Amino acid sequence: MVTSKEEELVEVLRSVIDPEIGMNVVELGLIRQTDINEEENSAKVTMILTTPFCPYGPQMIEQVRSVASTVMEGGVEVEIGTELWDPSMMEEGAGGDWGLF
Known about the structure:
Blueprint: H1 5-13, E1 17-18, E2 23-24, E3 31-37, E4 42-47, H2 57-68, E5 76-80
């Protein structure tokens, strides 16, 4: 099965867990955009945090950069978006454990 670099990147980002919530950043909808540069094998990842002053923010940003670099050898830039997170951004079915959906 052939997967795109973007699919590979998103899958590896599932290993980054928000320690307060116990769910990964993809399930939570914190990864808002991935821009892949195929020629350089690099990426720019735009993510948000569940709260603007998330105490684990710096740690999660660094984990996203580090984990993403395992599939994007040309480097990864992580940018923090300005959107405010809300539970509707979660992947379909991900909020079931919380009784949200």
